[in-house]
Amino acid sequence: MNGPIQESTLQEMIEGLRRFGADGRGVTRLAYGPAWCEAQRWLDSRARELGLDCTVDPGGNLYAHPPGLEPAAPVILTGSHLDTVEQGGAYDGAYGAVAGILLAAMGLGSGGIPVVAYVSAEEEGSRFASAFLGARSMLGMAEHADLDSTQDSAGVSWRAALEFARERGCASPVHAGPRPFEPLFRPRMELEAHIEQGPVLEAEQKEIGIVTSIIGFRRVEIRITGEARHAGTTPMAMRKDALVAAAECIWSAEVLAIEHGDPAVATVGRAEARPGAFNVVPGECELRLDARHSDSAVLGTMLSELEKRFRAIAERRGAKLDWKPVSSHAPVAMSADMITEATALAGEMVFSFKKMVSGAGHDSMIFAGQGVPSMMVFAPSHRGISHHPDEFTPMTELWEGVRFCHALLARLARRDAMEGAK
Ligand code: GLV
Ligand code: MN
Ligand code: MN
Hints:
There is one protein chain. The chain is built from 12 helices and 15 strands. The protein is α/β, with parallel strands linked by helices. It folds into 2 domains: 7-214 and 331-421, Zn peptidases (Aminopeptidase, 3-Layer(aba) Sandwich); 216-329, Alpha-Beta Plaits. Strands 1, 2, 3, 4, 5, 6, 13, 14 and 15 form a 9-stranded mixed sheet that branches. A 4-stranded antiparallel sheet has the order 9-11-7-12, with helices on one face. α3 packs across α12. The longest helix is centred in the C-terminal third of the chain and has 27 residues, at 395-421.
């Protein structure tokens, strides 16, 4: 890649990345899988062409950094995730990951605290029920036992998936010592560029969103066990139909979220009934429930009420219900200082902006949750479509986000240097 970094560089990289995992409709890049590995290697080579050096960590995260950067150096991290949901779009995660690499390259030679790009693994939780495996491993937040107990739906452990990635050059060996992961660099701040994934910025004709906080979520796997019986011979009054019980639970989750009002949301994103034949009353049904709220206490109340209602439904229908929480994160506030700087900068650069709460989860949650000052910049999403093949943002709007982040990083680096000199 020759010449200055510009909008066409961003376009070339986003378009290039979408080929990895293209499934005919959208993009499916499950963490540590073949398409994900190929995409990570491709980004590595692109980053090197831009003058950066690249390092992978044991959690399968890629860092693109100034050559010669010492391990454990204090840095500003900027990036996002490489994995997608199944049949997702080409921008969720990809935008921030590519933007991060461009921002690190644009920062080369500018002096001050180095800007390091990260490209993380398994932010979505699409392969492993547990989300943010990459960001958590970046910060050393995992035990050896987690590598074996975290398994995908085919029973492949996180450890085995990392080994698959390691054989392809996409992860370094897991540490044998007491902790499997140690932070490679010391993040003094973290900035994540991302598409909004909602309709607000486009509707209000704002160029960027400055994220002030990220909503909390809880995820639960539920198994309802009734009785599989002959669909022709079992009278309606004598059935324990697991799928009908599940349907009632799904509806009760919608009712509960509506009762709470905005920003409460509750979704059952998956229902799998067994044995799944025309002529058998379903004996078993598995559900995946996701509930979110910006207030931790309200989210806690929502979850206990959901569990109570689900259990009551199952009991009334003579079915058994197993309730297994699989992942959660409390709501987090973004750094007040970074928000102040971003707001001032938006005014100076004459960017139209909106301060907003993110309803989607992001890697920045993990950094912020660990006390690293973090912030996100959103670019508008066309019609608010996301987690869908039709996800789209015009390239000019994505480039404006990169330009803004570049100026913001320079400003934050100056501020960091001034504070260090005090
Ligand atoms: C991630 O995209 C999430 O909010 O689930
Ligand atoms: Mn994302
Ligand atoms: Mn997502």
